[in-house]
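Lab notes, practical 5.
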Amino acid sequence: MDRQREWDLSDWKRLGRAFAAQREAAGYTQVTAAEALGVSRSPVQAIERGRQSNGSPFTKITQTMRAYARLVGWTQDSPQRVLNGEDPQPAPTPTPPAPAGQRTSELPPAVDLELRSGTTLDSTVVHLGEATDDDTRIIVVLKGAEDLSEEELDELWRKWRKTRRQLQAIPGEPDTPSDS
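Output from the prediction step:
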């Protein structure tokens, strides 16, 4: 997904300035953006500064940068676009900011953000508990970008079918009741 060439420090600083401006326009502070992303303030500061927290230059676009892009209403490929000197793309359905200090769900902020972004493609539930503990389960939601090509979707489904079979092989109660 990332372009093969290496970006220089000025490219990363331009990306950081764009993130900061869009964050402010979306009504987030660095603290509220970090909370919504489920990270500390340091990664947000580093991204906006154009350097990693340890002072080293970035070498690739991170998952946090992609999540940050979705949070501020961009497509997840917008960081790469900005690094390449282009404008960020607005997301078709931007994630609306929650009022400061107000949670929109009981889920951890990073999970809540991920569930609200992208297209939901499928899900599965794996029950881990015994008959007396039917609340212990793993819930997996398959999400994808809004603009997947047919080839990308086919590859994603192939990987998902294999992963779902592995998940369903985890010992525990079956998903459907037996007639015994």
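Observations recorded by the TA: The mean pLDDT is 80. The helical segments are 9-25, 30-37, 41-49, 63-71, 78-83, 109-116, 150-168.
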